[in-house]
Design goal:
The protein has about 170 residues and is of the alpha/beta class. The protein has a single domain, classed as Rossmann fold (3-Layer(aba) Sandwich), CATH 3.40.50.1970. About 50% of the residues lie in helices and about 15% in strands. It is built from 6 helices and 5 strands, in the order βαβαβαβαβαα. The protein has helices at about 20-30, 45-55, 75-80, 100-105, 120-135, 140-165, and strands at about 10, 35-40, 65-70, 85-90, 115. Bound molecules: 5-O-phosphono-beta-D-ribofuranose.
C-alpha cells in the first residue's frame, strides 16, 4: 500500500487470489504508482463492490484493476458502476484452469468494456503495466517510470539472448 493518494485501485475476488495478484501489486510498487488493494467479491459482497466502484472516481482513483477466477464477474460488475477504465485479470483458479474466468472477463457486451489481460500471473503483471501506460498520458512521473521499465525489459532480453548466443552449451 502506498502512502500517497491512490491512483490505482486493485481489487481481487478472494484472498485466494493473492498469489496471482501479488505480481500486479509488486509491479505497481516498482513503478512507484500509488495504489490501494481491496478484496471484494461480486458474488459474495455485491453491495461492497457497487459502493467501491461508485466511489472510486471521487476518491481520486483513475484506473481500476480487478482480478477474479471462476465465473469472474468482478471486473465487469465494477465496470458497470463506473466510467473509469477497468482492467480485468482472469485468474486460473478453477477446475477449468481459468477458461471460465477468461470468457467471463473478456466477453463484455458493447458499451461496457473491460480491458482484459492474459490469464494468471502474466496477466497480473500486464495489468500493472497497462495501468501505468494509461496513467502516463496524464502523469509525467509515471510516463518516465513506464518508459524506463520498457527500456529495462528490452535491455534485459538482449543481454539474456546474447549470453545464450555467445555460449549456447554453457551452464
Ligand atoms: C472468485 O472465486 C475469486 O476471485 C476466486 O478466484 C474464486 C474462488 O474463491 P474462493 O472460494 O477461493 O474464496 O470469486
Amino acid at each position: 500500500m502506498s502512502s500517497e493518494r491512490p491512483l490505482v485501485g486493485v481489487v481481487m475476488g478472494s484472498t485466494s487470489d493473492v498469489d496471482i495478484m501479488k505480481g500486479c501489486v509488486d509491479l505497481l510498487k516498482e513503478l512507484s504508482i500509488p495504489h490501494e488493494v481491496k478484496v471484494i467479491s461480486a458474488h459474495r459482497t455485491p453491495a461492497r463492490a457497487v459502493e467501491y466502484a461508485k466511489s472510486a472516481a471521487e476518491r481520486g482513483i483513475e484506473v481500476i484493476i480487478a482480478g477474479a477466477g471462476w465465473a469472474a464477474h468482478l471486473a465487469g460488475f465494477i465496470a458497470a458502476h463506473t466510467t473509469l477504465p477497468v482492467i480485468g485479470i482472469p485468474i486460473d483458479s478453477s477446475p477449468l484452469n481459468g477458461i471460465d474466468a477468461l470468457l467471463s472477463t473478456v466477453q463484455m457486451p458493447p458499451g461496457i468494456p473491460v480491458a482484459t489481460v492474459a490469464l494468471g500471473k502474466g496477466g497480473a503483471k500486464n495489468a500493472a503495466v497497462l495501468a501505468a501506460q494509461i496513467l502516463a498520458l496524464k502523469h509525467p512521473s509515471v510516463a518516465a517510470k513506464s518508459e524506463a521499465y520498457r527500456q529495462g525489459l528490452t535491455q534485459e532480453t538482449i543481454e539474456e539472448a546474447e549470453r545464450w548466443e555467445n555460449d549456447p552449451t554453457g551452464a
